[in-house]
């Protein structure tokens, strides 16, 4: 079972504090508004947080949830999402493994981290017309993955040929000062426009202002909503 944890500032007890998260969400929207990002979608990244924190986030008004680990998402679907009356859009934002797609196909609404043809082929088999975003390498950091920018147009075309609904591109800025992310974000937005796509998913807690200034349509935030992620003390099969 996934270890339960509440972010700093939340009340203890049996459930997470929706009012606290709602206040944090308001702060995120104020940050977005300050850079003319009122229409930018907020994807609340709940990876490593337990199902009660996800439930509180939904109660707080989060309509989009981001998850990175297959086994955690399957657990949360059993505990919460399958029977949730106000079910959010579920975005898979972490490193995707081909052999996990079958189990996740009925749960994920948007696959944001598709960066290889074989992943697209498996998605086309398991979830025809799936909404996908191609993850683009913005940093050269191996741990962050992503398709090289020069190969993105061909990959987008191949995915479209497979019948996938390619809605946009996604990227993760480099480690370091937020301003370091600006060139990569500008490049990503340029690719989105060049390919005629609608979504540009870039920007996280530290660099969301830079991302919005460069044309992001959705930001993926976790720490500024929930506090630091709890350690995953028990290895979870992904």
- Give the overall form: globular
> Helix/strand/pairing class, anyone?
alpha/beta
Give the beta-strand count: 8
Described by strand count, sense and barrel closure, the largest sheet is: 8 strands, parallel
Helix/strand order? HEHEHEHEHEHEHEHEH
Computed Rg: 17 Å
Q: What is the percentage of strand-forming residues?
A: 15-25%
Into which percent range does the helicity of residues fall? 25-40%
Flag low-confidence runs.
1-15, 233-238
First-residue to last-residue Cα separation: 13 Å
Average pLDDT metric: 90
Strand order of the largest sheet: 7-6-5-4-3-2-1-8
- Individual helix count: 9
Explain what you see.
By secondary structure, the protein is an alpha/beta fold. Helices cover 35% and strands 16% of the residues. It has helices at 18-34, 51-59, 70-79, 101-104, 117-126, 152-161, 182-195, 208-213, 223-226; strands spanning 41-45, 64-67, 89-92, 110-114, 131-136, 165-171, 199-201, 218-221. An eight-stranded parallel β-sheet has the order 7-6-5-4-3-2-1-8. Strand 4 (110-114), helix 5 (117-126) and strand 5 (131-136) form a beta-alpha-beta unit. Helix 1 (18-34) packs across helix 2. The longest helix is centred in the N-terminal third of the chain and has 17 residues, at 18-34. The radius of gyration is 17 Å and the shape is globular.
């Amino acid at each position: 079972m996934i270890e339960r944890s509440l972010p700093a500032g939340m009340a203890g007890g049996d459930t997470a504090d929706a009012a606290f998260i709602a206040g944090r969400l308001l702060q995120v929207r104020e940050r977005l508004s300050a850079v003319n990002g009122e229409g930018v979608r907020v994807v609340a990244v709940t990876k490593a947080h337990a199902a009660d924190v996800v439930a509180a986030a939904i109660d707080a008004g989060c309509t989009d949830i981001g998850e990175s680990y297959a086994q955690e998402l399957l657990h949360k679907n059993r505990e919460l999402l399958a029977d949730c009356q106000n079910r959010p859009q579920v975005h898979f934002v972490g490193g995707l493994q081909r052999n996990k797609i079958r189990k996740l196909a009925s749960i994920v609404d948007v696959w944001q981290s598709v960066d290889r043809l074989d992943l697209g082929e498996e998605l086309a088999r398991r979830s025809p017309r799936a909404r996908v975003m191609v993850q683009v390498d913005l940093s050269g950091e191996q741990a962050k993955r992503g398709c090289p920018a020069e190969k993105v147009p061909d990959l987008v075309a191949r995915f479209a040929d497979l019948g996938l609904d390619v809605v946009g591109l996604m990227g993760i800025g480099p480690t370091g000062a937020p301003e370091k992310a600006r060139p990569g974000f500008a490049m990503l937005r340029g690719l989105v426009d060049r390919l005629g796509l609608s979504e540009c998913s870039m920007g996280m807690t530290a660099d969301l202002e830079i991302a919005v200034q460069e044309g992001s349509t959705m930001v993926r935030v976790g720490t500024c909503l929930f506090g630091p992620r709890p350690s995953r003390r028990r290895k979870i099969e992904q």
